[in-house]
Design brief:
The complex is a heterodimer of chains A (325) and B (285).
Chain A: H1 2-15, E1 24-29, E2 34-39, E3 45-50, E4 55-60, E5 67-71, E6 76-80, E7 87-91, E8 97-102, E9 109-113, E10 118-122, E11 129-134, E12 139-144, E13 150-155, E14 160-165, E15 170-176, E16 181-186, E17 193-197, E18 202-207, E19 212-218, E20 234-236, E21 242-246, E22 252-257, E23 263-268, E24 273-278, E25 284-289, E26 294-299, E27 304-310, E28 315-320
Antiparallel strand pairs in A: 1-2, 1-28, 2-3, 4-5, 5-6, 6-7, 8-9, 9-10, 10-11, 12-13, 13-14, 14-15, 16-17, 17-18, 18-19, 20-21, 21-22, 22-23, 24-25, 25-26, 26-27
Chain B: H1 22-40, H2 42-62, H3 81-111, H4 113-118, H5 124-152, H6 161-186, H7 193-206, H8 214-220, H9 222-230, H10 232-244, H11 250-270, H12 277-283
Helix pairs in contact in B: 1-5, 2-3, 2-5, 3-5, 3-6, 3-7, 3-10, 5-6, 5-11, 6-10, 6-11, 8-9, 10-11
Classes of the chains: A mainly beta (325), B mainly alpha (285).
Chain lengths: 325, 285
């Protein structure tokens, strides 16, 4: 019995961990008005599908059955079947939806309406509008705590991170951060919140319990002008050990130690890197590069850019489908 | 005292009438001479390293973002300028080494060491090839030393690339060394070597893909692009670049091997007293 187990173990070791599951990667092309679908294993383009005027934020339901796209200039959120890319229905998003976040349960959807200074809450099952929450000027970044109790919205002009109670739909706290906050990302254990500031050139580390800024991450890249360093998208690994920050026109993704909040490396990607998305196993991170019209693929373990893939015009948002259940 | 020093029994003769192993002994002799020269001239080794390192540390640092947008094979994504320039600098080491060998051939001819070499009963092409190969081995040592330093400068091709680049270094080194040999047959005095620097090394190096990719050349001038595309040194650079990233550039391999045959054939012809141009010219002086 022991010998058989050992043989099996050896065979497993020899064969390696086995091929990673192929997941679909969805990229919105802001200027191309379409979504490019990639294969996460072959890193090839599967297809490009028109979705409407100026698609930006994109996310997918936890079970992978519905793909949500903010179609900003059509003032709506369109919902697609991720397999066939057929439009299923639309959600009442309010005007100019830019970014949104799904409750961890998959319902509801919290949408930032850039032009109306609102966060719109929509039920993804009944397609009904549940609430409209007034926030600061030019709301954009949306983050949700892992327990789903708090949604954080960042307002670009007010320079604030607004903490919204998901039960009462009321703002419970405001934290002043650096200029033009763009994105909010909680760690998986909910102990930290990262808020990027595009013009400020920083990422604020906030303790969600005390609503205090505990640290500010700054960036410095030799040979790159400080004003070109504009942090936008932020993604943290589930174990919280590594945080990736997209630095916009600096064409770099910063690798930050999630424990010390110190920058450990800068990875060269395409031009104007904007948003990012992990594969479910967190082996790869995809970045959208708006000016070079491509998506760079980062090997997370090796902290290395392995490939850049041409997609549509001005890629903006990216999401990777969950593993099939 | 009368006891004779034991002499090695003559090895059985081969079809060419030479003892078996004579070829190996000749190669060993020539290679050992080059190795000795290399060991005794440590300054030369350092100088060969300093040149590309200055380019890497100083020149490349100022041009970090010069490549702009296009991703060209063998790269799969964006690379910093120092990553781009390293294969070109490896080829530069080999180019200078080839020219250095050419210089030493002229020197050997002036001092008479060449006569000793060429009176060997072995075929001339083999003697020249041995000389060439010995020079290439030295250049490969220098190239690997440079790649090792570049690794610490964050220029890190895939680990297997360091192995895959070896055949590329041999072919590129042979081609550039053969060019040196061919040139050395045409240079009669050491003083003329400066001309080689100005008319061969610099144009070859600058009009190649060592510093900028071909698409960048085309942006400024189509003629310059065509010159660069036809430059054998470009193909030496690309052969090394692709091999470092575990790919084969078949066009460059073909051009490098073709040029090697051409340059080496030309050198053998020029060094043949019966047919070469050099003795006739000398005789006609």
């Amino acid at each position: 019995m022991l010998r058989r187990s050992l043989t099996a173990a050896c065979a497993l070791l020899l064969l390696g961990p086995g091929p990673a599951l192929a997941n679909r990667v969805f990229v919105t092309n802001e200027k191309g008005n379409d979504v490019t679908v990639l294969d996460s294993e072959t890193l090839e383009v599967i297809g490009t599908y028109p979705v409407g005027a100026r698609p930006r934020g994109i996310t997918i339901s936890p079970d992978g059955s519905e793909l949500y796209v903010c179609v900003s200039d059509e003032d709506t959120v369109k919902v697609y079947d991720p397999e066939s890319m057929e439009e299923l229905h639309r959600l009442p998003s309010g005007p100019d939806p830019e970014l949104f976040v799904l409750h961890p349960s998959g319902n509801p959807l919290y949408i930032a309406n850039e032009d109306d200074n609102l966060v719109t809450v929509v039920d993804t099952e009944t397609h009904q509008l549940l609430a409209e929450i007034p926030v600061g000027v030019e709301p954009e970044g949306m983050g949700v705590s892992p327990d789903g109790k708090v949604v954080v919205n960042t307002s670009e002009t007010t320079n604030m991170a607004h903490f919204i109670d998901t039960d009462t739909h009321q703002i419970v706290a405001n934290v002043l951060v650096d200029q033009r906050p763009r994105f909010a990302e909680f760690t998986a254990d909910g102990t930290k919140l990262y808020v990027s500031a595009e013009i400020g050139g920083t990422v604020s580390v906030i303790d969600p319990a005390t609503k205090e800024i505990t640290d500010t991450i700054r960036f410095e890249i030799p040979g790159v002008l400080p004003e070109a360093i504009q942090p936008v998208g932020v993604r943290a690994t589930k174990d919280g050990s590594t945080v990736f920050v997209a630095l916009g026109p600096a064409n770099r993704v910063a690798v930050v130690d999630g424990v010390t909040d110190e920058v450990v490396d800068y990875l060269l990607v395409g031009q104007r890197v904007w948003q990012m998305g992990f594969t479910p196993d967190e082996s790869l991170l995809f970045t959208t590069n708006g000016n070079s019209n491509d998506v760079s693929v980062i090997d997370v373990a090796r902290r290395e850019v392995v490939k850049s893939i041409q997609v549509g015009e001005q890629p903006w948002g990216v999401v990777v489908a969950p593993d099939k259940q | 005292m009368t006891e004779a020093v034991p002499r090695a029994t003559p090895a059985p003769a081969t079809r060419t009438g030479l003892p078996r192993g004579a070829w190996a002994i000749a190669f060993q002799g020539i290679a050992a001479r080059e190795a000795l020269r290399f060991l005794r001239q440590r300054g030369r080794f350092l100088a060969a390293l300093v040149r590309p390192l200055v380019w890497l540390f100083i020149f490349a640092a100022g041009f970090r973002s010069v490549l702009g947008l296009s991703i060209t094979p063998p790269y799969q994504t964006y690379v910093l300028y120092e990553v781009y320039v390293v294969p070109g600098l490896v080829a530069m080491i080999q180019l200078f080494n080839g020219m250095q060998s050419s210089l030493s051939m002229v020197y050997d001819r002036e001092t008479g060491a060449m006569r000793t070499l060429l009176v060997s009963p072995l075929p001339r092409w083999f003697l020249l090839f041995s000389k060439l190969m010995a020079g290439v081995l030295v250049s490969i040592l220098q190239a690997y030393a440079f790649l090792a330093i570049a690794w610490f400068w964050d220029v890190r091709p895939p680990a297997l690339g360091y192995l895959a680049v070896l055949p590329a270094l041999i072919f590129a080194g042979l081609m550039l060394g053969a060019l040196g040999l061919l040139l050395s047959s045409a240079i009669r005095q050491l003083e003329n070597f400066a001309g080689v620097m100005n008319f061969v090394i610099f144009p070859m190096f600058f009009a190649s893909t060592a510093l900028y990719p071909l698409w960048r050349m085309r942006e400024s001038s189509v003629l310059l692009h065509d010159i660069c595309a036809a430059n054998p040194f470009t193909h030496a650079v690309e052969l090394i670049r692709f091999a470092l990233y575990l790919q084969v550039n078949w066009l460059s391999l073909g051009v490098v091997l073709g040029c090697l045959a051409l340059f080496f054939g030309g050198a053998v012809l020029m060094y043949d007293p019966g047919r070469g141009l050099w003795p006739r010219r000398k005789g006609g002086r």
